[in-house]
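Could someone model adenosine-5-diphosphoribose with this protein?
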Amino acid sequence: MAKVTVIGAGNVGATVANAVAHTGCVSDLVLIDIKEGLSEGKAMDMMQTAKLYGFDTRIKGVTNDYAATAGSDVIVVTSGIPRKPGMTREELIGVNAGIVNSVVKSALEFSPNAIFLMIANPMDTMTYLTYKTSGLPKNRVIGMGGQLDSSRFTYYISQALGAAASDVGGMVIGGHGDTTMIPLIDRATYKGLKVKELVSKEVADQIVADTMVGGATLTKLLGTSAWYAPGAAAATMVKAMVLDQKKVFPCCVALDGEYGKSDICIGVPAVIGRNGVEKVIELKLNAEEKAAFDKSAEAVNKTNGVLKEMGLVK
Ligand code: APR
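Reply:
Sure, complex below.
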């Protein structure tokens, strides 16, 4: 059975830990934070639900003790500041790049074979930063954003149709920013039917617009970033890795010629299994989708450029 570490025991990190424990596929989970007592307290609270929910994952909370994370199969990076209402994910780059760089380095020392699942924002750029600075192969650095955005997309579709979200299929590719994500509305389905044939153009456009600002809408309501859907999205990906499920998730991966791009980490569908990214799936994008993907990649590259200006990436 697998061992998983979650770095950052805040709203998102703790929810990831809780959701992973509920999958039942992980024997040991370590929650680590810099705030004294936070991980320990949240881990103990979760462990006191083990009897009630019937899970057997051992959850341990530690403060800054990376030795406790040794031998992890998957490391989920949530440490970083969340956005406040009115902020974009990209505005977090300065602070979060420093945090992400240091935690990845510490974690890698004790878990040299781990797969890194990146959640801290701006997620595409934090994934790129980790890929470029850690020396890890591209299959072992993955960003979670597309899986979350796709879940939000299917939520908005299900609301518009008055249907069950589990009956809806939809995928979001591109960057994980409010203006960079690409909800693939032409391909969205409801039980084999095309969503576009079931709703008016206005409704379809609204679904896309709502999805793109899905995170910002929640930040406005909550005063900080959301955590339930990010936690659940990460848990589905952790499960696919530790159980070698080889499931397809839209997620942020390093491209090396696929979609005509290289030297970038951006959202595309990928097969996820024991080796992390097992395969990148190349969709045959139509002209409109391709133009949107090119524009999105340009914006992600621009944000990545800040890392270069900061001297963090060559
Ligand atoms: N090492 C470990 N933990 C750290 C470090 C560090 N160097 N720096 C900060 N943290 C911890 C904080 O102490 C805090 O407990 O990361 C946690 C972040 O938790 P929250 O402030 O609750 O933020 P959260 O909502 O969980 O978001 C975390 O995920 O979705 C993204 O945009 C979001 O970048 C943000 C990240």
